[in-house]
């Protein structure tokens, strides 16, 4: 699949925000860990529900007409090449190229009447990952480019980490709109920055490669201790807070070398059969890693999967590559969560930034389309097997029950025990609501 999108912006792997900094000059992971211990009434008040979130972002935009909202009676230039197939829920039809997902339709629901007003990658990405459409000055080429905090950063701020694992993890890379904005580095994601489907996969710097002997790690820790003693001899009591950073750095070091961390991030410990069922590809293994992480206590995992930007050869790309990948990954994620008793406490959202144009273009592709698309979500208190709303005869716009990003995030935050009316404060002291006038999607809860 292509490495760049139609806007000409190369989706470079993001700058790592993780424990690589422990052996360098920055102290980002210690700050992430410090967030779990800081006195934060909002976090301590948190939600009464212990619900985690897996947010699967189909970067580029998934075609709703060719997956969950087929229009077989539409004119040929709209309906596409695929056929609808029955599922275990009477009357619910989805694409016949998703037979495995069809077996799990009783575990999730669909919003077919989802829409927003923008069809450009950068702004739409920001909108669907934050609940806020960006304002003047937004620069989509930056990583991160957030004017508002990503959903994972909001979850981190309000609920905080559980134990020693980070609250918010991004994989296999950081999406440009996956940052914390004004919430600061404490609520930035820990970025795995590696493809879990790689045969030699390991989390860079979090779990040291086997080739790094324990005595080398001990030497590095001793060096850090010497630097600390030098700093402490020079600092005054007024700078005593700096010593706290050292404590959190030590905690980060312990996390890096702990068996608990190795277990949580060691995807190779999974049975080969289950890994095969998820699919030995980036989306499948990222979904498996996400399940491992929420099982270990991570509050929010975002998966950035591309490239769904099917301007050319939409049907061939979907049939030969994207839909088989999607079918194995999403089917197995819901089944695995359910089998382990985790689905009730894990929200799963699967969406792109928009849909694709109902009218097929001259290159047998579909272009960007914000006015209508489908969002799949389940678990964590979502009613299963529900189809919310519908689109018109050509899937061009909602024919009933239109919902948008504000409503999606209001619903997610409510289910996670986060009051959607909560206000944060920007660095200049300006109060800012975590979501802008959304409503709970009542059909789903």
Written overview of the protein:
There is one protein chain. The chain has 445 residues and is an alpha/beta fold. It has one domain (19-208, 257-444): Alkaline Phosphatase, subunit A, CATH 3.40.720. Helix content is 32%, strand content 14%. It has an 8-stranded mixed beta sheet, with helices on both faces. A two-stranded antiparallel sheet has the order 2-3. The longest helix is centred in the C-terminal third of the chain and has 26 residues, at 314-339. The chain is globular.
Q: Can you lay out the helices and strands and say which pair or pack?
A:
Layout: H1 28-34, H2 41-45, E1 52-59, H3 76-79, E2 84-86, E3 93-95, H4 99-102, E4 108-114, H5 121-130, H6 151-159, E5 168-171, E6 190-191, H7 214-234, H8 241-256, H9 259-265, H10 272-278, H11 282-296, E7 300-306, H12 314-339, E8 346-351, E9 355-356, E10 368-369, E11 373-378, E12 387-388, E13 390-391, E14 398-400, H13 405-415, E15 423-425, E16 431-433
Parallel strand pairs: 1-7, 1-8, 4-12, 5-6, 5-7
Antiparallel strand pairs: 2-3, 4-11, 8-11, 9-10, 13-14, 15-16
Helix pairs in contact: 1-8, 11-12
